[in-house]
Structures are given as C-alpha cells and as structure tokens.
Amino acid sequence: MLYYKKQVERVILMSKLGNCERCGVVFAKTIRDICQACYQEEEQAFQTVYRYLTKRKNREATMAEIVEATKVEEDLIIKFMKENRLRASQFPKLSYPCEKCEAGIVEGKLCYNCTDTIKTQLKHHNQMEEIAEKRRKSQHESIYYIMQKGNK
Description:
Layout: H1 2-14, E1 16-19, E2 26-29, H2 36-54, H3 63-70, H4 74-82, E3 96-97, E4 104-105, H5 112-141
Antiparallel strand pairs: 1-2, 3-4
C-alpha cells in the first residue's frame, strides 16, 4: 500500500494540478487541458459528428446543418477540425471562421487574404525599420568632435 501511495504521489508531482477548461474541476494535467469526464464527453460528441458525416447524404453538410442535426456545439466541431480529426478533404463544405475576418477556412487560423495582408504590413514595417536604422547610422557618421585647447 505504501508503494502505491508513493507511485501516485510521483505521478501527481510529475504532472501539474489545474482546473478543467470546460467544467472547472481540479485534476492532474498530463497531455490534456480537460478532465477525464469532459474528455469522454468530447469523444462521444466526436463520434456523433463523425457518424453523421460519414453517411453519404451528409458528407456535404455545412457547419450549421451539422450543429442542428447532432446538437454538438460549433466550437467543439471547430476544435475537432483544428486537431485534424475532421478534414475538409473528406467533407468539402465543412469550414470554420478565420480569426480575423471570419471568412470560412479549412486549415490554420487565418484566411489567405488576412495572411497576405499581415505579410504585406510586416514587409512594410521591416522596410521602415531599415530606413530608420540607415538614418541613425548616417547621423553618427556625420558628427565630428573637435577638441580645443583651452586658453591658459
């Protein structure tokens, strides 16, 4: 019995205690941010969605249709997509919103247009930084110090 207690204590020390993101219960965090009970609920929800989508007539269902038919929260379905458990290649009308403009996307966090805009802004910012750095260097190069001997 003592050996078992030490093993449990070691497992608890190796993992961190935290609150489940879904229900708030305290549990020993390992690889998930949710407790075992919530994980099992999510797995059941995934199976429900997956069974719905694997029926031939439902393969082209939209997000709204899936939510309505399965009663699984949209956020949870989006989580399954981001984890690559549901792939847009298998279900062509399945998408989730871009985090910036909310356009439908099938992978990542941002759509192509938002990604391109950010890249353009970053490029412009880097160019402005280079210009400012050149100005600072040129100002340092053009400063001359003259030492004068004082009158005695």
